[in-house]
Amino acid sequence: MIRTPLRPLARILKARETGEDPSAIEKENLRLRHEALADRSRARAESRLLLLGAAFALAFGTIGVRMSTLAASVPEEPRVAASGNPIIGQRADIVDRNGRILATNLATHALYAQPHQMIEPARAAAELAAIFPDLDEERLLKDFTGSRKFVWVRRQISPEQMQQVHDIGSPGLLFGPREMRLYPNGPIAAHVLGGASYGREGVSSAEVIGVAGIEHRFDNLLRDPANEGAPLQLSLDLTVQAAAEEVLAGGMMLLNAKGAASIIMDIHTGEIISLASLPDFDPNNRPPALTTGDQSDSPLFNRAVQGVYELGSTFKIFAIAQAMEMGLINPMTMVDTKGPLSFGRQRIRDFHRMDPVMTATDVIVESSNVGTARVALQIGGVRQKEFLAKLGLTEPTQIELTEAPSGRPLLPPRWGEVNTATISFGHGLSSSPLHLAQAYATVVNGGTKVTPTLLKRETPQVGPRVIREDTSERAVDMLRQVVTRGTASMGEVAGYEVAGKTGTADKPLTNGGGYYDDKTITTFASVFPASGPKYVVIVTLDEAVESSGDEPRRTAGWTAVPVAAEMIRRVAPLLGMRPLIEPLAQASVTLTSN
Question: Do residue 225 and residue 279 come from a single domain?
Answer without folding.
Answer: no
